[in-house]
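Re: that backbone. Tokens:
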């Protein structure tokens, strides 16, 4: 029997690969000689770098770059030399968690550091990029990133505009002739799990501005500034589309990637499943195992386990999921590809006890063993 395992991380407890290895141990208590393939899995958010580095034999690189408030921060990203690819989590350099709640104000927070990370990766020989853009502290339309990559975003006096949404307010001219020439050789795949347009009632400012520290007045102003930015951009790039699904992600960063860097915006899980050649591995499989820390209705909204399940169903394969916790609405997962799911919790414990690394590993091993004992009964009586 061939079993393919692709589980997302159990955040705060086990990485994707660690959880996968625990599942393998549970299976081998029942099926010692099965062919088992473990694939790294992530959805473009936290844990993406770790998963792909572990699964694709990459390496970590740490660089000191500009943080969201203009201070220097350390950013750790991944390099997969065999693919000349960099894996970057934007939240590590321009993320909301890097900004104390008392200092949250998108008028000043910048994506400049992300551009610096991209530039560093290019200097390391990378030409392909997977970049997760969830969890941003910014609403600058990606102009900070563009400035770091050589684009000129100028005010009425021909000077580079300030960091943050304040820069959008004063933006009058966009010049592209000094942008890094090597960008034309680069392929950007952006893990974007929202469909917001750039502006309007569903735009980045209106929907995400409040959590970044913007009040009603600033939200309206930023929305107008982003609209003007889109109009300026369209003069240079006629195909610029402020209504394209996802361009409002990360405070308009999606718009900058799509318009200026010709990026592909897609579900993070979809991009990563393609990158790890998941479909090729399941073509001759008998069973697929997936899972994540918490299985609930949000899982059905494009998260990694559902991406796994949908591909598995293309080949009519059974899919079992394991999770740290399972909510009452997780049964929605049964309707879109997960045939059965199981919580690994075995008794009443505190959250910190449940997330203890050794406990979580043993809970997975023991739960998986019991599920596969049941599977073997079915086999033995068929």
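Recovered sequence:
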């Amino acid at each position: 029997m061939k079993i393919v395992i692709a589980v997302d991380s159990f955040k705060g407890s086990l990485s994707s690969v660690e959880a996968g290895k625990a599942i393998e141990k549970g299976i081998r208590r029942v099926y010692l000689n099965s062919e088992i393939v473990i694939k790294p899995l992530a959805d473009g958010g936290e844990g993406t770098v770790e998963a792909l580095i572990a699964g694709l034999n990459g390496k970590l690189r740490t660089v000191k770059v500009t943080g969201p408030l203009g201070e220097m921060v350390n950013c750790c990203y991944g390099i997969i030399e065999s693919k000349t690819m960099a894996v970057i989590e934007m939240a590590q350099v321009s993320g909301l968690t890097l900004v104390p709640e008392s200092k949250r104000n998108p008028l000043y927070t910048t994506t400049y550091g992300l551009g610096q990370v991209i530039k560093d990766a290019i200097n390391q020989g990378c030409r392909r990029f997977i970049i997760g853009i969830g969890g941003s502290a910014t609403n600058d339309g990606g102009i900070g990133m563009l400035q770091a990559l050589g684009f000129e975003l100028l005010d009425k006096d021909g000077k580079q505009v300030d960091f943050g949404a304040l820069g959008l307010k004063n933006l009058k001219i966009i010049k592209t002739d000094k942008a890094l020439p090597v960008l034309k050789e680069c392929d950007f795949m952006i893990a974007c799990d929202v469909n917001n347009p750039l502006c309007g009632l569903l735009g980045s400012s209106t929907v995400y501005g409040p959590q970044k520290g913007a009040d009603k007045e600033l939200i309206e102003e930023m929305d107008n500034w982003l609209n003007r930015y889109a109009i300026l951009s369209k003069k240079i790039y006629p195909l610029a589309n402020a209504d394209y699904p996802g361009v409002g992600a990360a405070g308009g960063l999606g718009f900058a990637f799509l318009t200026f860097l010709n990026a592909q915006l897609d579900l993070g899980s979809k991009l990563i499943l393609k990158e790890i050649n998941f479909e090729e591995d399941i073509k001759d499989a008998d069973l697929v195992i997936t899972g994540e820390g918490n299985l609930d209705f949000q899982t059905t909204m494009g998260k990694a386990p559902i991406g796994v399940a949908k591909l598995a169903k293309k080949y009519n394969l059974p899919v079992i999921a394991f999770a740290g916790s399972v909510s009452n609405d997780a049964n929605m997962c049964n309707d879109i590809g997960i045939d059965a799911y199981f919580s690994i919790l075995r008794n009443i414990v505190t959250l910190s006890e449940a997330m203890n690394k050794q406990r979580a590993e043993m809970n997975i091993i023991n739960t998986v063993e019991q599920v596969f004992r049941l599977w073997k009964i079915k086999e033995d009586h068929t």
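The chain has two domains: 2-41+277-380, 48-268. Residues 357-380 form the longest helix (24 residues).
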